[in-house]
Amino acid sequence: MIRRLYVENFKVFDRYEFKFPDGLIAIVGPNGSGKTSILEAIEFALFKSVSRKEKTVTKLQRLIKFGKERGRVELDFVAPANGKTYRVVRTLHPGRTTAELYLLEEGQTRASRGAAEGHPKRTAVASGAEKVTREVQQLLGMDRAAFSALIYVRQGEINRLSRQSPKNRRDTLYAMMGLRAYDSVDSKIRSERRSVEREIAGIRETRERLEDILRRLPTHDEIDRALGLLDTLAGQTTLDLTPLRAVVEKVFESVQEVEAELRSDKVQGRLSALEEDRGILSTLEEIVRHIPEVAEYQLRPTIREHARTLFCGIFGDRYGDLRVDDNYNATLYDLRGNEVPLTDASGGEDVCVNFSLRVAVNLALQHHNLTRAPPDLLVLDEPGAGLDSERRRWLPEAIASLREVRQVLIVTHMQELEEAAQYVIRLQPKGKGRQPEVTVIEQGGSTADSGQSTGTNT
Ligand SMILES: Nc1ncnc2c1ncn2[C@@H]1O[C@H](COP(=O)(O)OP(=O)(O)OP(=O)(O)O)[C@@H](O)[C@H]1O
Ligand SMILES: [Mg+2]
């Protein structure tokens, strides 16, 4: 969940502090008033990067307000991992950014605290753009890819899922479910198995070398015979055979040493232990590789059910069913039972299927979480784009089914959605600089956090 966003010289914004309570928050205003920019500021604060139209913005300095030298973004968010509130601060300069991460003390970011809020007691956690990003990812339990897939549905990207190939779609959905977390476990086990295999190969080489030496040395029989011969000779000659005997005995000692080394723990013992390790690691690798499939398999029925309910809620007058196959290909069935693959469906229908599927995954994860705390946040930028007036009436209801998600942030031009929200942030561009005037309206009353308009445009 996010609690507070402060922007300074960020795109159209001069200086502004936003508060975000729980519940449904609508961000409204005319084209170019800065709605998406608010979401971009959040994304930038968390991950030091912004994507637009499925591309990462490469020149971050373009986020600095025209004519200004530096920009600044501060975001207070509650980490799902531990329930604590953190503040990430990033500054934008031409060609570089800086970052700090702080832990805030309990209650410091509640709304309506007035002036003291600018200087809350805080403990530094990390410093430096990359370090802060890594730490934030840890706290969120997800990286930017998972965040984009699960939390933040960008403007115009709502139907991205249906445009992906089945493999990429599966990947995106796995990322949404947090199942990519097992990839790193898998690669760790694999590298461990490789190092065991390297050691096994090394020991085998040593063994071969010792066996080779042993082949060149005389056998026990040959040594026995040589010693016997020396004994016989000793009775027949006055020659001193002691040095010769010493040499044969030395050779015998060498043979025994090599044999002992071959049987030793260093070779035989270690080899058996390593071979056992390798067996265990391969089994483990096999298991870990299948965890995502098993987990996803268990989630799938819930996802399908949520998606079907949501979709039929919106399009129930035309369609009787939505079926999602194992590759998350969606097929619609009209009221007469005719099959309509998504490729044949209309643009608005496509948007709705995608909306339903994304929300279904989010909802399924609220209850059946596999690898991390529930997302608790959903950000939708213009989810109703492409829907006719009939569907638009349904959308608030579909969004209302998101009650299980603690905080839903929606950018919208739809009156219906604005009315359904408990908290409205309205942007109205003013003057040539188009600096937005911000009005905050609390309606419906069920949100607890803020009792008054918290806009403090300076
Ligand atoms: N560096 C900048 N400084 C000032 N203004 C900028 C800068 N970069 C972009 N803009 C302006 O910011 C606006 C983009 O705002 P944003 O995308 O947030 O609009 P929006 O409210 O989401 O509009 P829409 O309803 O059309 O999606 C544009 O009008 C653009 O010209
Ligand atoms: Mg926009």
Quickly describe the structure:
With about 450 residues, this protein is an alpha+beta fold.
Overview of this structure, please?
Mean pLDDT is 86; it is low at 110-116 and 445-458. α3 packs across α5 (166-176), α6 (181-216) runs antiparallel to α9 (265-315) and α9 (265-315) crosses α11 (389-400). Helix content is 46%, strand content 22%. A hairpin with a 4-residue loop joins β16 (423-430) and β17. The protein is α+β, with helices and mostly antiparallel strands and 458 residues long. It has a domain at 188-285. It is built from 12 helices and 17 strands. Strands 2-1-6-7-8-9 form a 6-stranded antiparallel β-sheet. Strands 10-14-15-3-16-17 form a 6-stranded mixed β-sheet. It has helices spanning 35-47, 129-140, 144-150, 160-163, 166-176, 181-216, 220-236, 242-263, 265-315, 347-367, 389-400, 415-420; strands spanning 2-10, 13-19, 23-28, 51-52, 55-56, 71-78, 85-93, 96-104, 122-127, 152-153, 319-324, 330-334, 339-341, 377-381, 407-411, 423-430, 435-442. The structure holds adenosine-5'-triphosphate (ATP) and magnesium ion. Residues 11-12, 29, 31-37, 62, 64-66, 155 line the site of adenosine-5'-triphosphate.
What is this structure's SSE topology?
Blueprint: E1 2-10, E2 13-19, E3 23-28, H1 35-47, E4 51-52, E5 55-56, E6 71-78, E7 85-93, E8 96-104, E9 122-127, H2 129-140, H3 144-150, E10 152-153, H4 160-163, H5 166-176, H6 181-216, H7 220-236, H8 242-263, H9 265-315, E11 319-324, E12 330-334, E13 339-341, H10 347-367, E14 377-381, H11 389-400, E15 407-411, H12 415-420, E16 423-430, E17 435-442
Parallel strand pairs: 3-15, 3-16, 10-14, 14-15
Antiparallel strand pairs: 1-2, 1-6, 4-5, 6-7, 7-8, 8-9, 11-12, 12-13, 16-17
